[in-house]
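Hey team,

Filing this mostly as a record. A colleague (T.K.) asked me to run one chain through the structure pipeline before their review meeting, and I want the input and output archived in the tracker in case anyone asks later how it was produced. No errors, nothing strange. Just documentation.

Input sequence:
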Amino acid sequence: LFFQPDYLDPYHIRNDLYVDREGSQTRLTIGARLSAPDVRSDGEIVAVQDAPATTRLVRLSQDARTIVAITATSIDVQWADPRWSPDGTRIAAVRQSHGRSGIVILDPDGKMIDAFGATHSINSSPSWSPDGRRIFFSSERGGSPQVYVADVTTFAPSVGRITRAPTGVFAPEASPDRMELAT
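Output structure:
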């Protein structure tokens, strides 16, 4: 499952969802303005939808024919990088509002469960540990992008830095055995 832009004319671009099955691509949406999709084990999709001057999170049916907004549009809030938890009961996403970037955890209907890691720096790429107990993400709060982790088994989790790469690291993803972290 991926998104790509469709250039309608020199002034209009629309992102749509596609699926690649065994080398054959199928377009799922037309003009839906969707990006950053993630698919749950039952095929339900969560994605970011562009709206005038803002974004929101939406859920889509497996065939992408039904799109349901799970967050409201607001000129003060931008959404990015939604990811389903391993058990499919929660969504982690980046919320940017009033100059601050934080990680939020939502239920599948968009109700906020928890939020953490708010900073005036850029947070990005949240990903769940295979057991759903931790969220890894990139943050530039120390000057260069590094990987941070939060234990989400407690309310208002504390955030800890786990990398110190001089060149920075992005997009952390835990291995299924939880022994390694790919960036």
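Quick notes for T.K.: The mean pLDDT is 93. Residues 43 and 159 are 31 Å apart (CA to CA).
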